[in-house]
Design goal:
The structure holds three protein chains of three kinds. Chain A is mainly alpha-helical. Chain A has one domain: ABC transporter involved in vitamin B12 uptake, BtuC (Orthogonal Bundle), CATH 1.10.3470. Helices cover 71% and strands 4% of the residues of chain A. The radius of gyration of chain A is 22 Å and the shape is globular. In chain B, α1 packs parallel to α5, α3 packs antiparallel against α8 and α5 packs across α6. Chain B has one domain. Chain B has a two-stranded antiparallel ribbon with strand order 1-2. Chain B has eleven helices and two strands. Chain B is mainly alpha-helical. Chain C has a single domain, classed as P-loop containing nucleotide triphosphate hydrolases (Rossmann fold). Chain C is built from nine helices and ten strands. Chain C is globular, with a radius of gyration of 17 Å. The chains are: A mainly alpha, B mainly alpha, C alpha/beta. At the A-B interface, α5, α11 and α13 of A face α4, α9 and α11 of B.
């Protein structure tokens, strides 16, 4: 006899439970690191988290919102400079200034969007880059911001070095966790679903009541906030900022390669990508520009043959999904079937 | 007088920018592809010229005879082997692949040629000047560049407007699938378009290398200026691209006269102003921005 | 001589199957009609024959040679020409240039620009205007003329009556009749059954991606066609 089977929407699987537990363990581990006293390792972790967050932000923008920007370095630079201005010139606590710098970056995202949203597709991409260049040149021509030579973050000088390093590290961990949780939560929410609908089809999603323009704008500004905060974090770590470094296209190059090689459109992908990035950089440290050549070549190959990225290949093979953002539709057992299945 | 002089120099610079922009505009028109490595290919051509000049001991302008076919072949190969597969897959693959290519080319040039800045020496012509009367004189080389740009544009206009292959380009730009029904092998056609694009940008790169110093990282700025010239002038019109280049050139030179650090920035600001006020460009044939 | 052979032709759009094992033959010089409701697979069938869709190698033969899967541009070279649904006139080309691009492959034959103008004087009057400036009927004439410029052995015509007034449609079918008179083999897809049955020697009625009925128009009754068209 057959019982009627209903369809149920499943959000959690075994893999996702494993992922959740694993994530908690990693965070606990990170929190314990400062007790080892290894400053070099802490700085490396800060850089790792920064790149990971930049990648997750770009992933959200391109992979989910369908906005391919090659000008995100604008917000890295704006965030970094905002940090210096807030902390040195306006006397704000430098650690508090980090998220505030993110807000400054988000504020700049509004007029930027007003301009670049007039473009579509590839022209949007180049347009975002042109705007980043404008920001760079404006700052490079401003005396108060140190022109081409840049500035040093002096507000942290009164602090003992260990204190600064540990608090920076703690801030980085907090930012990393917050960013990942925020992205994960958003994508699993109704708004996140709306976002993916817009990416997949504007007309279809608009006809279903999704406000395309506002959704895209909201994501763009939110990503600018995340990118700006990360930029501020990076320069809190480095202490020295200059226009050419802060607005360098390399920030975009690194994040694009990380996301493409790791896997566009998944949360796990950028994590894998960032790990690979650091491994490659470490392995090819003595070979100058070769690691960038290799990274670029890998990204090209990935985009052409393996658009799902390294993580995508693994996930497909083993049907893994540690941080699932999709919903699965399954036939659910009725209580009768459940009983007899034992 | 200083301003007239700056404006004239800007116009001539616009000729060079038009050379950069034309290749970009061509492939976007025919296959909706933006090649983010466009500028880097021009610098690659300049370095190929450096090598050619060194090995064959010729004038850089003569070296064009070698450089242009090489770059044209590279363009054909690139399109047929790699980029053709990305058409029709949406915008992301093409943007990312050409971006990746840009990074690979830059870093490859860095590895092979180091970070030293280079210059191509055509043996004197770059310093000659031509008096225009009224106390005004212009460089012979910029004048030559502008003339070359105009000649190339006329030639391209003739090819696109009058020849079978030009009709094929235009048909494919309207509707690639129906063009195939006419018997047009779009794979080969796109290869030819890219070959032409890189051939023109190779000329631009060599000219640039004569005019100024360049390094492995000079490519991205060239792409940006080319892009800005196309947008200012408007899509769908070769002469619009020349006009766009001229406007950009004038904005940059006049801006630099105002304040040395403001040259390129003024160009960017004019570009953004056009984008804000007239997104489809000043001389667009079609009203689309995509 | 069988010019076109179709054996067990199946066609897919991604996972969706649009044609199911279609088999038929067209003799040289014959005019064949393909009728059926919307979505029956008529356009898909023409596109498959013309090489615009990937199909199995042996599914389509031209004069005995297997040509299935060859790309559209290669098939034009061999004389299979499709006048596509919706006309698809090139907007960036003038009327005359649209005709010229039809002759891209330079196949030998009687059709030239001047000859097309004799057939369609309305086009000559507008030869330098953009192709899409024309009325619907004129664009259809241009599309047919463009197809003829390729000097086809097998001309595939997809739904030329769509959106046109009856008097225009009649004129177009008169043209098709004269083209047929020249000896060109024709496959005409139509929703307007009466017009096409008057000019065809053989008719296939498609339904849901398969042949539901075939035969000579004179031998088939209204009821038979209706049943095959809509499904009993």
């Amino acid at each position: 006899m057959s019982a009627t089977a209903a369809l149920e929407v499943q959000r959690t699987t075994t893999a996702s439970r494993v992922g959740g537990v694993g994530a908690v363990l990693v965070v606990i581990g990170l929190v314990l690191v400062p007790w080892s006293g290894d400053a070099g390792f802490m700085r490396a972790v800060v850089e790792f988290i920064a790149l990971l967050v930049l990648a997750q932000m770009w992933n959200l923008l391109a992979g989910y919102a369908g906005l391919v920007s090659i000008g995100q370095q604008a917000y890295v630079g704006l965030g970094g400079y905002a940090l210096v201005v807030l902390a040195d010139d306006l006397g704000v606590n430098p650690f508090l200034a980090v998220p505030l710098a993110g807000l400054v970056a988000a504020a700049f995202a509004l007029p930027t969007a007003a301009l670049v949203f007039r473009f579509r597709d590839a022209y949007f991409a180049v347009g975002t880059w042109a705007v980043a260049e404008v920001y760079r040149l404006l700052i490079a021509n401003t005396d108060a911001l140190g022109r081409g030579t840049g500035r040093t973050l002096k507000a942290v000088f009164p602090l003992a070095r260990e204190t600064r390093e540990v608090v920076t590290y703690g801030l980085a961990v907090a930012i990393g966790v917050a960013a990942l949780v925020a992205v994960y939560w958003y994508l699993r929410s109704r708004r996140g679903l709306g976002l993916m609908a817009v990416r997949d089809s504007e007309p279809a999603s608009a006809s279903l009541g999704v406000d395309v323009v506002r959704t895209r704008l909201a994501v763009y500004v939110a990503v600018a906030f995340g990118t700006g905060t990360t930029g501020a974090l990076l320069y809190l770590n480095l202490l020295r900022i200059s226009p050419d470094a802060a607005f360098s296209i390399n920030w975009t190059a690194y994040t694009i390669f990380i996301v493409v090689i790791g896997g566009l459109g998944t949360l796990e992908g950028p994590i894998v990508g960032t790990l690979l990035f650091f491994l490659l950089r470490h392995a090819l440290a003595d070979y100058g520009a070769w690691y960038m050549i290799l990274l670029g070549a890998l990204a090209v190959v990935a985009m052409m043959r393996y658009p799902q990225g390294l993580w995508g290949l693994v996930a497909e093979r083993y049907d893994l999904n540690f941080f699932p953002v999709q919903r699965r539709v399954r036939r659910s057992l009725t209580s009768v079937e459940k009983g007899s299945a034992r | 007088m200083v301003w007239v002089d700056a404006a004239v120099q800007g116009v001539l610079l616009g000729g060079l920018y038009a050379l950069f922009a034309t290749g970009l505009s061509l492939i976007f028109g025919v296959m909706r592809l933006v090649n983010l490595a466009h500028g880097d290919f021009s610098i690659l051509a300049a370095f190929v010229a450096v090598v050619t000049v060194q090995t064959l001991d010729v004038n850089p302008l003569t070296a064009l005879v070698v450089v242009v076919p090489i770059m044209g072949t590279v363009g054909y190969g690139l399109q047929r082997l790699a980029l053709n597969r990305l058409l029709g897959r949406g915008i992301l693959p093409a943007v990312l692949v050409t971006f990746g290519l840009s990074i690979v080319i830059q870093n490859g040039l860095l590895e092979i040629f180091s970070a030293d800045s280079r210059r191509l020496n055509p043996g004197g012509i770059e310093t000659a000047s031509v008096p225009l009367g009224g106390g005004l004189a212009v460089g012979a080389f910029p004048l030559l560049t502008f003339a070359l740009a105009v000649v190339l544009l006329i030639a391209l206009q003739l090819v696109i407007g009058r020849s079978p292959i030009g009709r094929a380009f235009r048909a494919a730009s309207d509707d690639g699938a129906t063009a195939a029904l006419m018997g047009i092998d779009t794979g080969r056609l796109y290869g030819l378009a890219m070959a032409l694009s890189l051939a023109i940008v190779a000329v631009a790169g060599v000219v640039l290398g004569i005019r100024t110093t360049f390094t492995f990282s000079s490519g991205p700025d060239r792409l940006l200026f080319a892009f800005e010239a196309v947008i200012i002038g408007g899509l769908g019109s070769l002469w619009g691209t020349l006009a766009g280049g001229v406007i950009l050139g004038v904005a940059q030179t006049v801006g630099a006269r105002l304040s040395p650090g403001w040259g390129v920035l003024t160009g960017h600001l004019v570009f953004l102003a056009v984008l804000l006020l007239r997104p489809s460009g000043l001389f667009a044939r079609s009203r689309r921005v995509d | 001589m069988t010019l076109l052979g179709v054996q067990n032709l199946s066609a897919f759009y991604g996972d969706f199957q649009a044609l199911f094992d279609v088999s038929l033959g067209v003799t040289e010089g014959q005019t064949v009609a393909v009728i059926g409701a919307n979505g029956a697979g008529k356009t898909t069938f023409l596109r498959a024959v013309a090489g615009a869709l990937p199909v199995a190698r042996g599914a389509v033969t031209l004069a005995g040679r297997a040509v299935g899967g060859e790309p559209a541009h290669a098939l034009v070279e061999q004389g299979i020409v499709l006048v596509p649904e919706g006309r698809k006139i090139f907007a960036s080309l003038s009327v005359e240039e649209n005709l010229q691009v039809g002759a891209y492959r330079k196949r030998r034959g009687p059709w030239t620009v001047e000859r097309v103008y004799r057939l369609f004087p309305a086009l000559a009057a507008r030869r330098h205007q953009p192709g899409t400036n024309l009325s619907g009927g004129e664009q259809q004439m241009l599309a047919i003329g463009r197809g003829l410029m390729a000097n086809p052995r097998l001309l595939l015509v997809d739904e030329i009556s769509l959106g046109l007034a009856p008097v225009v449609v009649k004129a177009l079918y008169d043209v098709l009749a004269s083209v047929k008179h020249e000896g060109t083999t024709l496959i005409v897809v139509e929703q307007d059954v009466s017009q096409v049955l008057a000019v065809a020697e053989h008719v296939y009625c498609f339904r849901k991606g398969a042949v539901a009925l075939e035969g000579e128009p004179a031998r088939l009754t209204r009821e038979q066609i209706s049943a095959a068209y809509f499904g009993a």
